[in-house]
Amino acid sequence: MYLFFSYTVLCAFSVLSVNAYMDPVTPTTNHALDLQLYEDVIDLEQCEEQLAYIMQNNTGLRNRFIDASFRPPRSILKGNTRDTGNYFQCLDISQQVEDMDIGGKYSVVQIPLQQDNFELPSIPELILPEFDWPEFPWPEWNPNTTHYDDELLTKIESYEKAKYGMQRFLGEDVGPRTTSNSSLAGMRMELAFCIPKVCTPKHAFDALTMNLTANLTMQEAFVRLPNDKPWVAADYVAVVLFSFIGLLTVLCTSYDVRHTVLLKRDPKKANKMFTLFSIYTNTKNFFVFHSNPNAITCLDGIRSFAMMWVIVGHTFVTQLSYIPENPLDIFAFVQSFWGLWITSGTITVDTFFMISGLLLVYTTAAKVSRMALLKNLHLFYLNRILRMYPVLAAVILIQASFLHRTTDGPYWNTVAKNVNDCRLNWWSTLLFVQNWVNPLNMCLSHTWYLAIDIQLYIASPIVLFWVLGKSSRKAWAAMAAALVVSVAGATTYNVINEFQSIPVALGRPQADWDHYLIYYYVHTLNRISPFIVGMIVGYILHIYRGKTVRMPWILAALLWIVAGTASFLVVLASYFNIQPDWDNQLADNIINSSIRPVWAASIGWLVFACKHGYGAPVNWILSLHVFKILGRLSYAMYIIHYQLIFLINATALKPIYFAVNFSMYRFLVDFTLAVIASFLLNILIDFPFANIIKMFLGGGRKPPAKEKPSEPEAKLPEMEFRAVSVVENIQDEDNKKTRI
């Protein structure tokens, strides 16, 4: 045992690399893990007794502890310094011996490669110190004087920097980076020990190595014990609430099936209240799509492809953050030209902002007058916010409770951090202010988009009021002024703050990365321009609603070339500014201020061309029926997919070797699970509550039954005004939402 641990320590320091830094979250009463349990089990006197018994009297038990502990990390020269041991085997150790209750504790320790006071003895002293060895220049090894390959050192330092920034970007809990000039500073091995639960890792390690490592600096990153997930208020609320919804679902489905299937009665005569939560009716309605001559069918495809881009990007970058066995390979991939479709993926969110602005104008301009908007402004806001709440609140509660109990694994500390964030900061997400209040600890970290979308929706009547008027000049003036002000304001703000132009900017100090994330990436000011561009495109589509647009094919081809070139340049920019030698603040300022409205304008041309017959095969692909289904699922997919990716990653039993083809298989798994989960959320949560909200906010008298008009732009009477969701697709005449 002594030789085994001595060998593994030697292997740990024989090469240079880096891995994730995990700092325990500040204890709270709602903490995902029982931190007090970890403190209460420590008994150093019992630890010495149990270690002595294990080493001297129980070879089988000793081997179980050894077998569940770490091995020398694989692919060390590829940048991997983590070994996870055998998580479940360790926690499964439980044996009552004499008066001792010996149980396994999974403890991950960080061992910095810079050790100021540690030095291993020479080989004779290490193997048999009492033997009279002949004089010989036996090698001594000191990690601080070991020579490392300069090229490898540079790559690993760059990767460590990128990993730290990506962890911050993904909302993970990481500690501050060291500012030391030493090449080893901040770099550490991260190894999993299986030790008796009454021991601390340092105490057990020193005892097992006969104090040879007494001067070795190590820190416990996190620890796990069996049954260390305490039940808190969120768990009880989730059980009661979802059990009640489940009961309603069973009762409503039973009534619906009996009425419609068994008794073969007219579904229209069924009690609407008794079918609100019916799986049968909601599933049937989910696949019903009403035709509409003014529908912008390509939006479903654009939304679907944008959603897939989001998911594939998250699939790749979460591996870069903390799970790869060969991090240097994935790091090289994201810096390469062929990694552009991953590194530029952040721009896809601006596609959603553009669509939001487009549909806000396109769906309201034909239905709502100025006075109707002003008189019913409260409904305009309330309908939008309430339509977001059911799925969002359900996923917040699921994250705070059920997801924490579905499975487990050696990477669970990331999921635990997400659970803690939702238990502490759920209110800021439901108030849509998380990007301002707690940007580094958001509940559902990716929902900063929803916060900004709602904030822009709340401010939109400032421009929308003029758009709904009869004067096109005032409408154009209002939108042009809004675009100029938003771009000028963002440009001034960006120039003053001198932001980097990409989340992971290897040529910038890491203090700039947090500054970029908080004050640029999730800041509302920088997301206004694509929303305004969307409003302009929506107004143009409204002007030509039902009309035939005649455009020379040469002009159409030229616009396609301009839009394609502009969007390609937006994507290409991430190849240059992710390189370690990038240092051009002027270019960063230009990129930050221009790429979002330029991208939105390019997508806007795509929508216009497809709508008015200049999209050819592009429109045919984007208008396929399958994208209608994905478009209807896209909002729930956006909310739930990220948490599922973290859940899957957390269950990995060892670091995974990165390869692009394997990551694409992982994307297919992540995408499929997101589709299934979002479908269930739509049927069980979104559709029932959408109908309840529609009943609650429908207002006014219903007109007598008559044939529906073929043109949806017929204005609603002011007394029957209902707010139109910013992401409601125009073809859903029965208020069935297809949101992003």
Short description:
It holds the Pfam family NRF. The chain is mainly alpha-helical and 740 residues long.
Molecular structure report:
This is Nose resistant to fluoxetine protein 6. Residues 298-685 form the Acyltransferase domain. This protein is mainly alpha-helical and 740 residues long. The protein folds into two domains: 2-148 and 183-224, no CATH class; 287-699 and 712-720, no CATH class. The chain is built from 29 helices and five strands. Strand 2 (94-97) and strand 3 (100-112) form a beta hairpin. It is globular and about 90 Å long. The model is unreliable at 1-27, 176-183 and 699-740 (pLDDT under 50).
- Beta content: under 5%
The low-confidence parts are: 1-27, 176-183, 699-740
- What is the average of the pLDDT values? 81
* Count of the domains: 2
Distance between the termini: 57 Å
How large is the count of helical segments?
29
Radius of gyration: 30 Å
Please provide the count of β strands.
5
Helix/strand/pairing class, anyone?
A: mainly alpha
Global geometry: globular
Largest sheet, in brief, is:
5 strands, mixed
As a percent range, the share of helical residues equals: 55-70%
Signal peptide: 1-20
Pfam families: Acyl_transf_3, NRF
InterPro entries: Acyl_transf_3_dom (IPR002656), Nose-resist-to-fluoxetine_N (IPR006621), O2_lipid_transport_reg (IPR052728)
Transmembrane segments: 236-255, 305-323, 338-365, 386-404, 448-468, 475-496, 516-541, 553-578, 635-658, 664-685
Key structural traits:
740 residues; mainly alpha; 2 domains; 5-stranded mixed β-sheet; 29 helices; 5 strands; disordered N terminus
